[in-house]
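Incident review: delayed structure delivery

Summary: a single-chain prediction request sat in the queue longer than the usual turnaround. Root cause was a stuck worker, restarted by the on-call engineer. No data loss occurred. The affected request and its eventual output are reproduced below so the record is complete for anyone auditing the incident later.

Affected input:
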Amino acid sequence: AIDYESIGKRIKHYRTQKKLSQEELGKAVFATPVHISYIETGARTPSLEILILIANALDVSADDLLTVSYTHLTLPTT
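Output delivered after worker restart:
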């Protein structure tokens, strides 16, 4: 299953990292600030087209938005 809420959180993370408002991102991807807000909260499912536009506007890969990065633990050896 796709976790759209997590995707939205990652979009918000990268947007705030670039110091963009929802309005500025919306203008860059031809969407309203309300629509960006819905995507960031997981209330709406972004189309593939808008997801790619968002990734390009934020200078990240679609993978960065779609996948969770895991920190691998190194187990001590004996």
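Verification: The chain is about 60% helix and 0% strand.
Action items: add queue-age alerting; document worker restart procedure.
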